[in-house]
Design brief:
128 residues; mainly beta; Rieske Iron-sulfur Protein; 5-stranded antiparallel β-sheet; 3-stranded antiparallel β-sheet; 10 strands; globular; binds FE2/S2 (inorganic) cluster
Length: 128
């Protein structure tokens, strides 16, 4: 499944469920964040390293009030949007896991050919 780039406005975000097929036949499932920041689209595993929670677990939001940093809604740790590096003291220097995307002809897809987007969400509601 691909995501129309037009679905992501500046400082907007979507989440998506992905499946990664292993050579063994096992399928790993994960949830990712996708957002546009300063005109570029970024994606990370939706998994805060502090207490292993999705960044939007308490509120349907991933940005701080100024919309300049990612912010985990659980305890408020903040991250650089461009790198996923945590700026909060407890996890300082640790990084959200980036997910490589390909943007082509107005659509976003995962770079990893073994991985597939299986569901897309906005405000917790499935889009497709
Ligand atoms: S779980 Fe994210 S800041 Fe604590």
């Amino acid at each position: 499944m691909k995501i129309a780039s037009a679905l992501l406005a500046e400082n907007d975000f979507l989440t998506a469920d992905i499946e990664l097929k292993r050579r063994s036949g096992l399928i790993n499932k994960a949830n990712i964040l996708l957002f546009q920041f300063n005109g570029r689209v970024y994606a990370y595993l939706n998994h805060c390293m502090h207490m292993q929670r999705p960044l939007n677990c308490q509120q349907d939001a991933i940005f701080d009030r100024e919309r300049q940093r990612l912010r985990c809604s659980m305890h408020g740790f903040v991250f650089e949007p461009e790198t996923g590096v945590c700026l909060s003291p407890v996890c300082e220097g640790q990084q959200l896991q980036p997910i490589k995307l390909i943007e082509q002809d107005g659509f976003l897809s995962l770079h990893d050919k073994q991985a597939e987007i299986v569901a897309i969400y906005r405000c917790g509601k499935e889009l497709i």
